[in-house]
Hints:
Helices cover 42% and strands 19% of the residues. It is built from 14 helices and 14 strands. It has helices spanning 15-26, 73-94, 109-119, 131-134, 141-155, 166-175, 218-224, 241-248, 265-270, 292-300, 311-319, 329-341, 343-359, 363-377; strands at residues 2-7, 30-37, 48-51, 54-60, 100-104, 122-127, 160-163, 180-182, 203-207, 230-234, 254-258, 274-277, 304-307, 322-325. An eight-stranded mixed beta sheet has the order 3-4-2-1-5-6-7-8, with helices on both faces. The longest helix is centred in the N-terminal third of the chain and has 22 residues, at 73-94. It is globular and about 65 Å long.
Amino acid sequence: MNVLMLLTKIFRNDPRVYYEAKALKEVGHDVTVLVWARHDQEHELPEVEEHDGIEVHYLHLSEPDSQGLSDNPLFGNVKWWRRAYEYGLELHKEGEGFDVVHCHDLDTLLPGVKMKKKLGVKLVYDAHEIFGLMIRKDRSEALAQGALQFEKVLASNADHIITTSRPFYEHLDKVTDRPLTIVMNCKPLPFEEYSPPSNEVPVFTYIGLLHESRMFPQLVDIFGEMDNVRFRIAGKKENLYEEVKKRSSGYSNVEFLGSIPYSEVIPETKRSDVVVCPIDPEDPNSSLALANKQFEAMVCGRPIIISDDTHAGEVTKEWDCGLVVEHTPEGIEEAVERLRDDGELREELGKNAFSAAVEKFNWEHERNKLISIYEELG
């Protein structure tokens, strides 16, 4: 089948979308990805590029319009929805025609629904997050509720809905009667067996969002003021990036790596002794999700420090592959001290993490579920 994927993040920076597109390509489907190239990202992106036989088109939409509304998030989305629909129809007409439109997250679903109604194609809704819950911490409650209702209406048009965790599945199952499947953000297994780290001083690594909800910038101070540990940090150039960079420079045992490409995430994780992943249990979306860092730690055989009262914490407890602590500086500090001082515990939890990846939490397993969905659609 010919598949059009719609996406509002940079394709090369979104491993989930890449893994899904590649998996479909490997079993004979043709995949085209249409991406909203937003704001300051646009000057770095071509009109079209190719990744492993996957053609990626970037829509550049931030040039000023006659109303001067391009930078408003709501009006920006409206413009993207209109142009994505129009451009998708153009691609459909120019090629052999699409059989499936695969929409990644709610902010792509409206043009997908319109294309289904116009062309009679199948529609897959891939809910990486529960969008209304995700925006609740930064937007008004009215807008968050509006997004939840928007999703409920649009999702009813999907031929199949994919999501990433059991709590997300349960949420969607309450608002739609469409077929549902969990396809987790697991990673391919890059190593055949567990191997321990070889650092003289235990290295704790954080790679991800540099935000208050992940306990930044105080996490820098927690590690910086501890003895016999090293802390390595990487994150995107957004949110608290400059503050974390500045604060890291004040400690000899904290190394700020800046923004690193995704190709470096697994090697960097493997070089560490422990992965650190605080998740705010009060965040209604993140607390229900499974963390990418969790899966990266698993395939590398590294224990994780993660927050209690979260779904990710529940999975960590179930597989005994890390320490689950209160989402407080004291909780993090206690876990760091315990793992710093107990090499046998680090190894035991790391081996459990690797076993979890081999047994269940790997992309090969999730890939097969995705392929089965497309076999049913076909």
